[in-house]
Amino acid sequence: MSDFLQSIIDRDPAAKSKLSLILTYPGVKAIFFHKIANFFAIAKFDLVARIISQFSRFLTGIEIHPKAKIGKNLFIDHGMGVVIGETSDIGNNVTIYHNVTLGGIAPSINTNDQRNIKRHPTLEDNVVVGSGAQILGPITIGKNSLIGANAVVTKNVPEKSIMVGIPATRVGDATKGFQPYAVTDKDKD
Questions:
Q1: What gap in Å lies between CA 44 and CA 59, rounded to an integer?
Q2: Quick check: is 184 in a domain?
Q3: Does 187 map to a domain?
Q4: Which CATH number goes with the domain that contains 153?
Q5: Distance of alpha carbon 80 from alpha carbon 146, whole angstroms
Q6: 13: pLDDT confidence band, cut at 50, 70 and 90?
Q7: Which long-range contacts (CB under 8 A, 24 or more apart) does 35-43 make?
Q8: pLDDT of residue 175
């Protein structure tokens, strides 16, 4: 738990202390409740798992399906309106901003054909997803990629890509890494 909280402090200049994260960050609470809901989902107590996830949604404004797979140190910043679908798979050290959807495509069409199959995205390690982005379908966002605010991504994204627009297109190489809030070492002088 301490490593998880430190990872948020390392990525958020507004984070003041681990105690403040526990008490005031909705993303921290949502991850905590997801761990409990996921335990019940794996044990096939689906109704209990869904009740816990809906309670978490009520408290935080963040909806994470109990069966979603989440790696270490997921940071959901601000969080309101985040939706993470059932078959989503999130790697380690991923950052997601508010109003992001990791969703399926056409969930109300041929519903029975979509049961028990991969319908939602996979985000590999160190991905950053900007506010309002929609990542839809069983696609993969490669390691160290940056998804711009309000982008709509419906195709696989190679590692270290910067994706923006509707539909999202690759506009650059993310080899320099993510600078939160566009702060760079040059700006600090």
A1: 24
A2: no
A3: no
A4: 2.160.10.10
A5: 20
A6: confident
A7: 37/64, 37/66, 38/66, 38/67, 38/68, 38/70, 40/66, 41/66, 41/67
A8: 77
Per the structure block, which two tokens stand in for 166? Answer: 């509707």
DSSP, residue by residue, 17-36: -HHHHHHH-HHHHHHHHHHH
Question: Could you read off the pLDDT of 70-117 as tens digits, one per residue?
Answer: 999 999 999 899 999 999 999 999 999 999 999 998 767 777 777 888
Total domain count, the chain? 1
Cα dihedral sign, 158-163-165-169? negative
Query: Could you tell me the sign of the dihedral formed by the alpha carbons of 179, 183, 186, 188, in that order?
Result: negative
Q: For the stretch 175-187, what's the b/e string if a residue is b when 16 or more beta carbons lie within 10 angstroms of its beta carbon? A: eeeeeeeeeeeee
C-alpha–C-alpha distance, residues 72 and 105, integer Å: 27
Mean pLDDT of the chain: 90
Helix (H, G, I), strand (E, B) or coil at 116: coil
Q: How far apart are CA 83 and CA 67, in angstroms?
A: 13
CB 174 within 8 A of CB 146: yes
Task: Work out the burial of residue 102: count CB atoms within 10 Å of its CB; fewer than 13 is exposed, 13-18 middle, 19 or more buried.
Answer: buried
Nearest to 101 by CA among 132, 77, 78, 70: 132
Tens digit of pLDDT for each residue in 29-78? 999 999 999 999 999 999 999 999 999 999 999 999 999 999 999 999 99
